[in-house]
Amino acid sequence: MRNVLLIISYTLRESFARKVFIFFFGISCFSLIITGLIFGLADTESILNSFFRSTENLSGNIVMMIEFTIVSPLASLGLLLSIFSASSFIPVLLEKGNIDLFLSKPLSRPQLILGKYFGGLLVVFINIAFLVLGIWIIISWKFSYWNPDFLWTIATITFTFAVLYSLIVFFGIITRGSLLGMMTAYFIFIILSPLLHAFVEQFSGFIKNGMIKKVAEILYYIIPKTSELMGKINLDIAQGKGIADFQPVISSFLFLILMLLFSIFLFQKKDF
């Protein structure tokens, strides 16, 4: 465990050295400054009118929806940037000289991979937490309504990245490059997961070809459910409703575990 913590610490320092952490922190700060200026200078009534046709019976749900409307696109943008930046952690590790240095230390290969994985995850978690917490404070202060359940979105967003990052680590070990893992993660997050979710929920009844339906359903249960995680599940958690359907969470978590296990297995078989 101590070795894993040391690699996590090293990865965090590496993100500072390569300006990854500072880049994310700068974007988060800029987003918070803009949000603070908008909500600080505008009056409450005009803000509500820009979101809703009627401002009667202002409730906590309305405030929460304003928070979610702002956080959701910023979180999606943050995930896209996280995928881009974190995709290089494993390829840099596998570079000649770096990998020789690490393998000469008294730590196992699984510890090395887990340390790099959780290190990258920590970088993203800190920035996501800073962004969500900052927006929550600004809007809660503006409307004098504090909903701590909204902060659970930090866990949902971080978990979504954790699932995609396990895939990036896997392809990083196979190819010793960042491009394939990064593009695969983008494809799943932007295109494949939303399409499969829409197919299963809305369009499966219109498809007459049984083979196509079966393949789509199999893919749906294999591919991480990033669309549901960042959509309905994230919204329900923000509202304090909890998770109604755990299937997307469980299947995505199993995908994460399998990717990490495959990554460790492949890394142990590689010669350096």
Description:
It is a single chain. With 272 residues, this protein is an all-alpha fold. The protein has one domain (2-269). 79% of the residues lie in helices and 0% in strands. It has twelve helices and no strands. Helix 4 (60-86) runs antiparallel to helix 7. It starts with a helix and ends with a helix. The mean pLDDT is 83.
Give structural attributes.
mainly alpha, single chain, 272 residues
> Percent helix among the residues?
over 70%
Order of helices and strands: HHHHHHHHHHHH
Q: Overall 3D geometry?
A: globular
Euclidean distance between termini CA atoms: 24 Å
Give the biggest beta sheet.
Answer: none
Uncertain residue ranges = none
Helices and strands, with pairings:
Elements: H1 2-17, H2 20-41, H3 44-51, H4 60-86, H5 89-93, H6 98-103, H7 109-143, H8 153-175, H9 179-203, H10 210-222, H11 226-238, H12 247-269
